[in-house]
Amino acid sequence: MTQCPLPPSAPDDPMTRWKALDKDLDRIGALEEGALFVSRPLVAPGLALVFIVLAALVSALVIGFSHSALIVIAAAAVGAYMALNIGANDVANNMGPAVGSNALSMGWALAIAAVFETLGAVLAGGEVVATISAGIVAPGAVADPQVFIWLMMAALIAAAVWINLATLLGAPVSTTHSVVGAVAGAGVAAAGFAAVNWAQLGAIAASWITSPALAGMVAALILAFIKARIMYVEDKLAAARLWVPVLIGVMAGTFATYLAMMGLSRIWAVHPLAALVIGLGVGLTGWAVAQPLVQRQAAGMENRRRSLRRLFAAPLILSAALLSFAHGANDVANAVGPLAAIVQIVRSGDVVAAVLIPAWVTGIGAIGISLGLILFGPKLIRLVGTEITRLNPMRAYCVALGAALTVILASWMGLPVSTTHTAVGAVFGVGFYREWHTARRRRALGRSLGQAPGEADPPEEHRRRKLVRRSHVVTVVAAWVVTVPASGVLAAAVFLALRGLAG
């Protein structure tokens, strides 16, 4: 008589117990992964909320807990929220080309941008903050300090709400446009059209048109120079050994000149001529240091365009860092300019023309921009770097350097230009130049083959070979047209509401 074997799932079998435990652990692990996946979208908003609360607490500690300080605490919270939005939107334009061309990983791009954004805001952000806070609305037109406080508070709230709404809708708006329009709109609501410094606003508005065009032209000229002197010569590596160190020296000299005139002015008053001498010395030093590095990197490379892309990776990273510094110097005003005006009025009890910028106010803007970049920036960085036009390290270098030079010049003059449109203008400049250059070479090839002009490049083929997405042109122009009046109307409504609540 044969004995029946035990069933494989007998309860007293140790292996069965371990298998059941493993299944239970797997279920728990899957549950934890699901919970983590569900809660992950809440991490970034949660950290952003913590920063906003900390900014309010810092302002309370500095100003003190009193009835008059409540408006400063509220303005600090809204300013922190504004800075987060700026970091999420505008900084993507600085690092997008570098990431899109594969010269930088996302992690390194975030780290470099955060460091240089903070340095630019802290070292060189004062001139533009003064323009935003006191240059658009004439203090003499709004003599009542309480009314001026509500004006600046309304501008902060309206600009932050508009940028957040536009971001949710996927509209590429300018934070600078939003703040300037909000300040002007609240000023009109507070004291009529005479309250707005229309001459200053006109100069700022003119820079919105000229800065993208200038950035596009500068980027196109740099690309044309690279094509003529490096890409389309017989010995490409020899040309790169000569000119890449020069380009690095130009960037280093430009950065040093700007830092000497803007950043060091708070410590040591530098004459413009002395700043130029400093920039020339740093540029020559950068060129001398880059020469052996480029020579070593080019050793063993093939005489091909693909090799040139590797040589332009370092200049591209340097230019992206330069643009982040310029962005921090320029766009910190959008976050804390109205806040600085509110702090000054609360402390002095009067509306003054000269606004002193406290260090803690600039710090809120600098940290908020960097934090917004880290929490919300990667998606937009990929969008800017890949969807407007195709970029490689050489083209991305031209975009970054052209935009950086334009923004630095504007910040030097105290004009809050839109870094969004400046960077997009540089991208369009590179893309449109490539279209023109490609069409010109195709026509020249057709003529050499004896083809008629229309036969070499028929209209349908020309449309198919567009290298820039035309839809972005329409989107940017629409954003320029809508943002200023929309933020102005919203700020006027917020101001009237705040004044009504205050009685």
Automatic annotation (TrEMBL):
Highest taxon, organism lineage: Bacteria
Subcellular localization, as worded in the UniProt entry: Membrane
Family in the record: Belongs to the inorganic phosphate transporter (PiT) (TC 2.A.20) family.
Major subcellular location class: membrane
Recorded GO CC terms: membrane
GO MF entries: phosphate transmembrane transporter activity
Secreted keyword on record: no
Annotated TM spans: 42-63, 69-88, 108-141, 147-167, 179-199, 205-226, 238-261, 267-290, 311-329, 351-376, 396-413, 419-436, 473-498
Keywords for this protein: Membrane, Phosphate transport, Transmembrane, Transmembrane helix, Transport
Membrane topology qualifier: Multi-pass membrane protein
GO BP: phosphate ion transmembrane transport
Matching InterPro entries: Phos_transporter (IPR001204)
Pfam families: PHO4
Protein name according to UniProt: Phosphate transporter
